[in-house]
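Homework help board

Subject: predicted structure for assignment chain

Our instructor gave us this sequence and asked us to write out the predicted structure in token form, then describe one feature. I got the tokens but I'm not sure how to describe them. Can anyone check?
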Amino acid sequence: MNQYEVALLIMALVTAFVARGLPRAWLWIAAGALSFVVSATWWRLHLPYHPAATLICDALVCLSIYSLAREEFEIWLFNLFRLSVLVSLLKLFGVIQENLIYAAALECVNFAALLLLGGTGILAGTANGGHTFGSWIGNFRRLGRSLRSARRSPPWFTIPR
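My token output:
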């Protein structure tokens, strides 16, 4: 493991702790981690078409989130995984040439997904009450309620359960 993977692991563990009150947050953290582990293993074993393997892993997570999402923050998470799929497509088509830029872009998306889950977990705590420390806390409560609101549109497909 390199220092970026260690940082991602620590952030995933902290996010899992902070977002423990969110329904299915651990599911999405685990799905993203599994996708990361499979694609990183593919890269380390020097198997062919690494960006395609990463694209498939992220697309599976993306489709799972889309079909199972119940709350608005999950739709935002779905969009972040779509961005990850786009980054892999850009690498496959040669728009992104450097492996370092490709890896950095994927890491940024992973960190953004963890920040979304952790931030939503923190905002969910403020949305459920607590002490008021001024009028600005009301903005955080409203944002937390918005992210935790029910999904606006049903998926056009569902994964059989």
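Reply (TA_rk): Your tokens look well-formed. For the description, you could write something like this. The chain has a mean pLDDT of 86. That's the kind of observation they're looking for.
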